[in-house]
Amino acid sequence: MISxxxxxxxxxxFRTEPRIFRAPGRINLIGEHTDYNSGFxxxxxxxxxxxxxxxxxxxxxxxxxxxxxxxxLEVQSDxxxxxxxxxxxxxxxxxxxxxxxxxxxxxxxxxxGGNVPQGAGLSSSASLEVGFAVAINTLFNFGLDSLKxxxxxxxxxxxxxxxxxxxxxxxxxxxxxxxSVIKLDCRSLEHEYFPLNLSGYKIVIADSKVKHSLASSxxxxxxxxxxxxxxxxxxxHMKVFSLRDVTxxxxxxxxxxxxxxxxxxxxxxxxxxxxxxxxxQCLKDGDLHALGALMHETHEGLRVKYEVSCIELDFMExxxxxxxxxxxxxxxxxxxxxxxxxxxxxxxxxxxxxDLSAQYKSKFGKVPDFYIMQISDGATEVKN
Length: 384
Ligand code: GLA
Known about the structure:
The chain is α+β, with helices and mostly antiparallel strands and 384 residues long. 42% of the residues lie in helices and 22% in strands. It is globular, with a radius of gyration of 21 Å. Bound molecules: alpha-D-galactopyranose. The site of alpha-D-galactopyranose (GLA) has 12 residues, from helix 5.
């Protein structure tokens, strides 16, 4: 449906036949703020996508049309720079990465748009970067492998959007597989798929409608605080390269060398890494209740120690935690707004959303958006 609209716009604007690509947003079952600490995460691609209609042009121009913003941007291929349009910077950032590899895109036309909610912690930006990287790589036959494209998409976010993100979102947008979560080791970049058998349950995403802005310095500050923690630990433990290598005992024994804030950040990350490993075991054992308990611990850690939650997310998590219909809930993504992820008994999804809507409305005067997510495949060309 969206791909048909994008194609139509492309043909009207550029009068040629495009090729169509798409990349998904993502959820993350558990493992938050662990990716840039070389730790473990457990994301999955979702059935919400950004679509791209692309074709070469002979005019040495890069022309982009955002279907969602109804805006056109044209730049000369030999004059690549950041613009004041954030949406365009993600795409220009990807092109800049290809240039660094000595791969020149020359003239390119692109219409894009999709249904990944923006600013909601579902990684619409990663779907933009990864989908566009796959589109360029395929259209120009550049032959880069998928992992290389993931790393380039991540660098596009660092250099053109100013967020020093980890690799989780781009990785999930590329390597997602239908009905499975990805247990990713962010150090070795090896992954294992775990079929997500939610028999009797559904994943319900509740969007607080508080728009997060990861670029707002807080995300980068958390990253810097973790790095500060590592430097302190390395004074005693030379073989520690990241919080991934740190045990709770090491941290405890050096507790008084940290500022209280840095200690709290590190303590959260060390515990969260361990929770991902435990969660993998829960999935193997089919123990969804134990998984739900870990999700609650993650939320508490993000709220109290990592301090990336907000009152709206805490309220939603608490309603879910007290609900008989929900076995696990937590805030998801970078934080400061966005969504909670809830595992809800499938016969009571409507009861849950109605309860949460009513309570949220009476407290904050607005109603959350709800999405019942299916787990889907990663970025691909869409053949008509
Ligand atoms: C954002 C970043 C990811 C990750 C999460 C928190 O989504 O893009 O790399 O750090 O926040 O887990």
